Amino acid sequence: MLETTAKLLIQKLVAEKKIDLVWSYILKFENSQNIYEAKKNAIAGWRKLSSLYVDQNDEIESLAQKITQHGLKNADALHVACAIFAECEFFITVDRRILKYKCDEITISNPLEFM
């Protein structure tokens, strides 16, 4: 319950432009695969609130390849690589596998830790 409350507060802060949301091509792709139209549309609405869009490029692909060597799946590695490429301070997730990944370029935390 606390994690959900923290997530909702983060979304409120994004909507109020108090923190920046970065959107990426891998988010766009994964959302396009969502079979639930209402969820797909709700998630897509957040792109309009993002302050930056990260498109696919060789640097991200190379970085993601290195990240996969630490046990992350390709899509997860691409998410993290996009955030690092965009010079984000934080990567917020509830995915336990991603939360275990540590690097110097970005702080990875769950919504509760972030708040």
What does it look like?
This protein has 115 residues and is mainly α. Helix content is 55%, strand content 10%. It is built from 7 helices and 4 strands, in the order H-E-H-H-E-H-H-E-H-E-H. The protein has helices at 2-15, 25-32, 37-45, 58-68, 74-85, 96-100, 111-114; strands at 22-24, 52-54, 90-92, 107-109. The strands form 2 sheets. The protein has a two-stranded parallel sheet. The protein has a two-stranded parallel sheet with strand order 3-4. Helix 4 (58-68) packs across helix 5. It is globular, with a radius of gyration of 14 Å. The mean pLDDT is 96.
Produce the secondary structure layout.
Elements: H1 2-15, E1 22-24, H2 25-32, H3 37-45, E2 52-54, H4 58-68, H5 74-85, E3 90-92, H6 96-100, E4 107-109, H7 111-114
Parallel strand pairs: 1-2, 3-4
Helix pairs in contact: 4-5
Provide the descriptors you would attach to this structure in a database record.
mainly alpha, 10% strand, two-stranded parallel ribbon, 115 residues, single chain, 7 helices
